[in-house]
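Why Rhodanese domain-containing protein? Reviewers of the renewal asked for a concrete example.
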Amino acid sequence: MKYLLTLLLLTFYTYASDAFITPERLKELLKDKKLILLDVSSMYDTSHIMGALYADISKFTKSKYERLASAYSKNVQKEIIDLGIDPDSHVVIYSRNSYDEFQNATYLAFVLIEHGFENVSILDGGYMAWVFEYHTLISSKKSSAKDDGTYEIKHNPNLLIEPDYIDRNSRNIVVVEKDYRDNFFDDLTLRGEDELNEFASELSLIKDKEIAVHDETIFKASVNWYILYKELGFKNVKILQF
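Here is what the prediction returned.
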């Protein structure tokens, strides 16, 4: 059984999209007009990768006064327009090398996917990985989108679930509460294929079961959600919110 599960996980890994990309790959993408490079760091004004736009994460979070999901989605649509995201864009997100800011990157990726936009990648190792390789390709000059984005959101309300959903579906759902930091090295580069597959194997994740990721905040939960959904290819993954 364990052999079959490992084989299944390897299949997922083989067909995973570019969930995490290297600085070398990003450098190639800088020539692509479809690239939208987003910096979620609070230090954007100090320095950022050349051509990166600042994505203010606070504009992608729900206000405590915002009771209707439709109102929240309208805000997301506005930000997508302002950032110049089109249906055929490739969005690459990066952060500084702190856990808090890295959570912002995976959270933004989650919000975009929650609203139907799937072509999202995260720069593995973040800003410092880029500086180590291409320190001449940074800037303190603010960048703006060339045109308004044309992508129209398609909100999926099923990616966020409440505790009562777990109660009703306890036999068919696996709750993941593992510390996401175990999946990264100290420089916030993702661990290797074998270690990620072991992470999924230890949790006894099975293809036909739903997976609910839970952590102290939705920001923290978004990290393991992103790894499972984008890197390992589990598509029935949700975030449990309290």
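The chain has one domain: 2-240. This is the kind of structural detail the renewal will allow us to pursue systematically.
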